Fold each of these.
Amino acid sequence: HEHGTHVEGAGGEMDQRFTEGESEETLTTSQGHPVRNNQQTRTVGKRGPATLENYEFIEKISHFDRERVPERVVHARGTGAHGYFETYGKAGDEPVENYTRAKVFSGEGKKTPVLVRFSTVIHGKDSPETLRDPRGFAVKFYTEDGNWDLVGNNLKVFFIRDAIKFPDLIHALKPDPVTNIQDNRRIFDFMSHTPEAMHMLTFLYSPWGIPANYRLMQGSGVNTYKWVNEHGDAWLVKYHWEPVQGIKNLTQEEADELQGKNFSHATQDLYESIEEGNYPEWELCVQLMEDGEHKELDFDPLDDTKLWPEEQFPFLKVGRMVLNKNPENHFAEIEQAAFGTGVLVDGMDFSDDKMLQGRTFSYSDTQRYRIGANYLQLPTNSPKKHVATNQRDGNMTYHVDQGPNQNPHVNYEPSSYNGLEESEQVVDYHQPYVEGKLQRSEIDRTNDYKQAGERYRTFEDWERNDLITNLVNSLKPCTPEIQHKMVEMFWKCDADYGRRVGEGLGMKFKEDGTVDTEFAAEITPTKGKLPGSVG
Ligand code: HEM
């Protein structure tokens, strides 16, 4: 549809009549009235007062009063771009169809339009982009089978493995509800009770916690999904985006320096690169595992605090993504964009990963609140193929999602009066057999420290040094009890790791590596004392 160029009436189209001095470029109200004075409010006499019936003014100011929608509860600060995904037609050396029948991967050189949004996680929508924080990497594929969203982060693992802990994790990381200041005492209070976070913390407090910008970072789906082929066979799959531009991370010192000059450097970098025709590109790789528990592994393949060792589960390239178009309007296309882990296409399925299952409820739920019940009618979110539903009405209904030949009276199914009908496509569903006691319990192979220790040892020296400095500085304001607990956990990851953080905090270690009791004696219980009231 076009605005303002013509009006359709009962008698067909008629030309918009412009009075003299008006054209299509003339400023109007949203009601289409030409605006003749946009500088002065209508007032009684030159000096006022203003009058309430001034529709033009009220329309303008009240729309302004409603310019914001609630920002995302996490990942509020972000930017994005459009582009395409192009298939290789293979997963490594094998035809990709052996593993998935998802059409978005099939054939060679097939392009699917995408929308990507990059973000930081914890702070508000205008916060600095230099902060230590995971980076979001969300991709919406507008595929021929409808939308597929791959909602990932730059880091390949996460803090927790059960969605029920997410609100607590985020509350600990977000500003204190009293002081409104992010507080390491609260963060490490939570982390000291969360051994599964050690792997993520080891990444996050190293330079990997501050990517130089969005172009120079990886992406990962983090959670374990499934691929389903035409026979209904399933594979467990993890997704990874590898930047063709390379990877670059910042030390805390470099980030501090940059933040003093520009707190939107990552947004600016992406926007300007695309404007200059320097289009960023990522290759999409997958790791595959036969569906199953894999008891032979020392971790659970559904545990998102773990990496799947690359030697055992090689990265198989399946395609590449190029970002080549900036949004025309940030709010319409990026702020209102809605990504969710539930948005899969045929040939993909959910695994029992408890984080993935919780996330899948959370995203669409928050979007119905953040944007509105009809958020999928917005052009940025709606699939680029036909949509025909029996869903009707609700706040801000923009159009009726009806089929071209659907009887508009029939918004239900089944019907004999030309309503919508189910697809006749026959597919072999993936039908996993599930049996078990309904219970709340931890998974068996928690193995919280091993991969964190491996990570510590494979870092380069400068990365390890920065990690230690950052942890020591961040733990300084914490109580000795929390410091001790954290050091003990770093110790369990790697003795050198624990020792260096502990020594940085002034702890003395005995020969056998345990902390000197003199230090332990200083440990005072923090129970009942709020961090905000310390001192
Ligand atoms: C955004 C929930 C874990 C990546 C969000 C939003 C919610 C949410 C409510 C805001 C969405 C919106 O307003 O549109 C959760 C829950 C999690 C979880 C409940 C754990 C149970 C993760 C993990 C990742 C991740 C593990 C990384 C793989 C993202 C990204 C965004 C986001 C990238 C921003 C999407 C965008 O750019 O619009 N999450 N999240 N989240 N989350 Fe999660």
Note: Residues 72-75, 78, 117, 119, 136, 138, 151-153, 158, 163, 166, 222, 337-339, 355, 358-359, 362-363, 366-367, 370 surround protoporphyrin IX containing FE (CB under 6 Å).
Amino acid sequence: MTFETMGLPPWLLDGVRAMGFERPMEVQARCFGPAMDGRDLVVQSRTGSGKTAAFTLPLLAQVKPTGIPTVLALGPTRELALQVHGVIEQLGKPGGLRSACTYGGTGFTAQLEALHDGVDIVVGTPGRILDHARRGTLKLSGITRVVLDEADEMLSAGFYEDVRAILRMIRKIEQMFLFSATIEPGIENLISDMMVDPVHVNLSGDRVDVDRIENVAYLIEEEGPRIRSLVSVLESEDPGAAIIFCNTRKTTESVTAYLRRRGYDAAILNSDLPQKQREAVIQRMRDGRQNLLVATDIAARGIDISFLPCVIHFDLPDDTQQYIHRTGRTGRVDRRGRAVSLLSARNLHNLKRIEYRYGIKLERAQLPSREETLKMLALRRIRELKEKADCQPVIPDEFQAIAKEIITDPDAETLVAMLVDQYLSAGTTAGGSVSSDRGYDDPTRTESGDGASPGGHGERPRPPRKDGGSRRGSGGRPGRR
Ligand code: AMP
């Protein structure tokens, strides 16, 4: 099937071409016909399979540009709402259709202006949509079509009341779409309550795509510090770019601080971050300007970073479904991806549940030893420093003279380690606000076997990994076993 034979209006064909889409993805081809016939849809399709356009195309093909909202699309996170809004805006433009995005965490004014200007489609998160509706700044009475993106989450306890309240404010829903990668049997009752004889499109969403995504678990010591194992995983995997998922905000903070302190290009994403920073950091990942993103599950759903080669589950999620959603950030649109988990004996039952439920087996990988890790890390940092040195044409004579003396000094190791420490400290202020990791129980400073240097400084030199080249395609994995 092609977009032409699907029956898209010519202006929408222009829109898909402008997005660079050549032919419809399966979910788009399967949904368009029934949606155009006015049917309700319940669609289960894996993440990254083109779901946004699957509901956007039939909506845009049916909506008239009146300036009064007739379509409402709801999503669970601000980032997802913005992403959906972006697609609708881009595809709808040639047809003169306008969309506004409303979400919490930012002021009302700009969103009010957008709504006042007259829009045809409103996208948003439930809380803020409800606020606008209650203040009378958004009239829901004209809405006739509703989309619940990430529907299982929208119908879970956290959102259900708000979503119901919004739906009750709509006079007549003529068409409703529910889209998600996972749809739990438990929500079937809610679905039959809200929808009329829906068409079910099931593209095996509730499973891990084993052909494209390698699922790997590194076995880590129960008593060893998990964060140190993460460094070994990063050195072993050398993913280029990755999202590192943690179960709590507190863990994202300590992990980010720890990695940045050691020169990794890591940024944090959790719900404590101001909205503007949340958007900026995702954009940096999309643009390839940020290598590592340490995130809570606010990044687990829907977010589309096309080329992300790897997802790391620093903590295995308590909820098995989250494994699918998090993992779905890699291997988008038929690309290959890698999902790496840190697995201790304590997590074994979680792992078994994931493996059983999704019929997969995570390949077990062995963590490199501490010595191997430090060696890989040191060699990489030296490589990066050399690259920097190549680009720095003049190093003053005085510095060369100091260096010459240092390397023959009996305390050379301590002195160089101290310089590296200061060099890395200077780099920890970039890339979002995280407190210093001095509060983190830093194992490299307290445990034996890491070669506390004679000067009493427990750190080995760790030159920075400040983006020593493009991450795309840097997927070499030295030391992987
Ligand atoms: P989604 O599942 O909606 O998050 O989409 C995943 C990715 O697929 C996004 O980067 C879209 O831009 C891309 N995409 C959607 N439809 C198509 C298509 N027909 N051809 C190529 N890429 C597409």
Note: Confidence is low (pLDDT under 50) at residues 429-481.
